[in-house]
């Protein structure tokens, strides 16, 4: 099982309050390499359709969508190396350009 | 809402012993305040174990194609080495973690993954890879079992998965 897929599915099934997918990039990046602050379902599909995001990120986005569909309200893809991991888990991370919120 | 937080950690965050210790400290502290479920991969360590066993690595679009020999290595590395080491780090940092895999009771029901539609349009069988059973087919009983299982086992769990 892909680890991102499992995380999204568990978050949905446990009705978690938050899903944080922490990796080595600063959230979801646009074509120019800048962090996208917020992504809704339509924008997400467009990123996948246009090939802006690679396979690994597609799995992350699908996992986030599964969590959102399962009622998880707070879903982010974030840079876990930024020293912000504790704040991300607690949901207190300020908007710093290191994470993308999925809506 | 269970109030739980699910945290997926990419392998790059656990690449060195120093990184693992730092992340384990954050997790041990955070788990005092929230129920935390940590999901980790470990693809790079699977790759080096495969290389050591002279088993060729096959991927499509970054997704692993898993045959019987590969699966044995994946289970040994993720459920054995990576998960145990990470759980030990968290507990050494003052946490109270237990390691689980999707095979453990109530964690996750899976079925064989559907073939992957590659970027070149081809349908590729990923082999011995699972995908979670869709929510609509999960019964209320399965969800209750899952919650009960988590409650019984720990406030903090790590689940090893292939990436």
The N- to C-terminal Cα distance of chain B equals 28 Å
Strand tally of chain A:
4
Helicity range of the residues of chain B? 25-40%
Mind summarizing the main beta sheet of chain A? 4 strands, mixed
Helix content of chain A: 25-40%
Beta-strand content bin of chain A = 15-25%
Low-confidence stretches of chain A: none
The run of helices and strands of chain B is EHEHEEHEEEEEHE
Quantity of strands of chain B, as a count: 10
The shape of chain A, in one word, is globular
Count of alpha and pi helical runs of chain B:
4
Secondary structure elements and pairings:
The complex is a heterodimer of chains A (103) and B (163).
Chain A: H1 3-13, E1 18-23, E2 38-39, H2 41-49, H3 55-69, E3 74-79, H4 85-90, E4 99-102
Parallel strand pairs in A: 1-3, 2-4
Antiparallel strand pairs in A: 3-4
Helix pairs in contact in A: 1-3
Chain B: E1 5-9, H1 17-30, E2 36-40, H2 43-52, E3 59-60, E4 63-64, H3 68-92, E5 97-101, E6 110-112, E7 116-117, E8 123-124, E9 130-132, H4 140-153, E10 156-160
Parallel strand pairs in B: 1-2, 2-10, 5-10
Antiparallel strand pairs in B: 3-4, 6-9, 7-8
Helix pairs in contact in B: 1-3, 2-3
């Amino acid at each position: 099982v892909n680890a991102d897929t499992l995380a999204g599915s568990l978050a949905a099934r446990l009705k978690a309050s938050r899903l944080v997918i922490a990796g080595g990039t600063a959230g979801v990046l646009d074509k120019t390499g800048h962090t996208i602050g917020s992504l809704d379902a339509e924008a997400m599909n467009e990123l996948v359709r246009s090939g802006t995001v690679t396979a690994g990120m597609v799995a992350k986005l699908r996992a986030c969508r599964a969590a959102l569909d399962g009622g998880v309200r707070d879903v982010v893809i974030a840079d876990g190396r930024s020293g912000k991991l504790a704040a991300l888990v607690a949901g207190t991370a300020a908007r710093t350009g290191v994470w993308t919120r999925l809506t | 809402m269970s109030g739980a937080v699910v945290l997926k950690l990419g392998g790059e965050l656990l690449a060195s012993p120093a990184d693992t210790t730092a992340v384990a400290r954050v997790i041990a502290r955070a788990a005092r305040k929230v129920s935390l479920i940590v999901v980790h991969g470990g693809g790079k360590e699977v790759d080096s174990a495969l290389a050591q066993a002279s088993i060729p690595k096959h991927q499509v679009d970054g997704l692993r194609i898993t045959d019987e020999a590969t699966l044995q290595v994946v289970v040994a590395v993720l459920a054995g080495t990576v998960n145990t080491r990470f759980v030990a780090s968290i507990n050494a940092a003052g946490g109270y973690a237990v390691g689980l895999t999707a095979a453990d009771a109530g964690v996750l029901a899976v079925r064989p993954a559907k073939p992957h539609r590659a970027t070149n349009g081809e349908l590729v069988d990923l082999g011995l890879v699972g995908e979670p059973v869709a929510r609509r087919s999960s019964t209320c009983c399965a969800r209750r079992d899952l919650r009960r299982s988590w409650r019984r086992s720990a406030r903090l769990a790590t689940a090893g998965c292939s990436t």
